[in-house]
Amino acid sequence: MADGRGAQTVYRNREGKRIEREEWVELQQKKKKKRVADYPEQELEWGGGLKQRDNREEEMEEITRIAAQPFARFEPDEKYMQELKAKQDWNDPMRQFEEEQVTAPSLEKVAAVKRPKCPHPPWQNRYDIKPGYRWDGRVRGNGHEQEYFHTKNQREFEKADAWRREMANDDN
Predict the structure, then answer these.
(1) Which domain holds residue 148?
(2) Which of 15, 53, 109, 114 has the highest CB neighbour number within 10 Å of its CB?
(3) Residue 27 buriedness (CB in 10 A; 0-12 / 13-18 / 19+)
């Protein structure tokens, strides 16, 4: 028959050569074995990766180490002392001496990088933002800042002037 009804199935390997059904079944089983589920030791864990698992293991080791110690400790162990030494409090008065020892006088501090400054005097602004060193000295604003400062100074002057007049009237 030309349409293939009733014909036997032709099984082929990866190269395309004809093989028997039994060989084909073996190849399929080998393919299945390559899946991750067939190797449970390599299966991924839910909720984390390798680093999280390592962290969990370290935490468990630390807990077992602490649990093995007696409840009433009279002398702290070395690990605990190292943790205390590593911890730095912001209000520790001896911290400055430790920092001096770490830097040591033999190690000279590297001079801070001198950044170029703008040669022109900065204009007045509400946020005290200094101009960049490439500024050419020309103010290109619309005058809003000057207006703001003028109004602010005028209010302060009027307030102080009113207070002076009031004090002058109280003396009489």
Answers:
(1) 122-135+142-172
(2) 53
(3) middle
Of the listed ranges 29-43, 56-70, 105-119, 120-134, the least confidently predicted one is: 29-43
The Cα–Cα gap between 129 and 123 comes to: 9
Which pair of tokens denotes residue 28? 């399929």
Q: Tell me which amino acid residue 55 is.
A: N
Give the total number of structural domains in the chain.
2
Residues 49-72 pLDDT 10s:
888 889 999 999 989 988 888 888
Q: Are 120 and 131 in contact (CB under 8 A)?
A: yes
On whether residue 81 sits in a domain, the answer given is no
Residue at 5 is within a domain = no
- Is 0.90 surpassed by the pTM of this model? no
Band of the pLDDT at 105, cuts 50, 70, 90? Answer: low
Q: Residue holding tokens 């040669």?
A: 119
Distance CA 146, CA 114 (A): 32
Please check whether residue 28 lies inside any domain of the structure. Answer: yes
